[in-house]
Design a protein that fits this description.
mainly alpha
């Protein structure tokens, strides 16, 4: 058996274009017609196979893109959840910090009032003693 050649539109066109325009001596013209029909059928078949292969490749690429999109969507949702959790944690820390700051300010104010009151009472007491 001879080696099989892959059928592509290019090889089929080459075979069709290189066929003799008249039958070889001793062969009926019906043979050339059958060969032409056979080559044309092969060309159509080859183009159909190529188109089917292209469609399958396209389907596989679309499926791969859908999977990648789903993975990216899941990652985005996970990261969004992490960011929301971090934001909530940060807001809680800010509230705590503000409360601590406010309580320290009140404490400082109370300390200053107490000191001022003590100093005032000492002055009053010192003034009374000196009289």
């Amino acid at each position: 058996m001879g080696s099989r050649r892959e059928l592509t539109p290019e090889t089929t066109r080459t075979a069709v274009e290189s066929r003799p325009s008249s039958p070889p001596p001793g062969l009926p013209s019906a043979f050339v017609l059958d060969a032409t029909v056979s080559l044309a059928s092969r060309e159509i078949l080859a183009e159909s196979l190529i188109q089917a292969q292209n469609q399958e490749n396209h389907r596989q690429q679309v499926a791969a893109l859908v999977r990648i999109n789903q993975q990216l969507q899941a990652e985005m949702e996970a990261r969004t959840a992490q960011l929301q959790q971090a934001l909530a944690y940060e807001a809680a820390l800010k509230r705590i910090t503000d409360r601590v700051r406010d309580s320290l300010d009140e404490h400082q104010i109370c300390k200053m009032r107490c000191r001022s009151s003590r100093l005032s009472w000492r002055r009053v007491a010192a003034t009374r003693r000196s009289m």
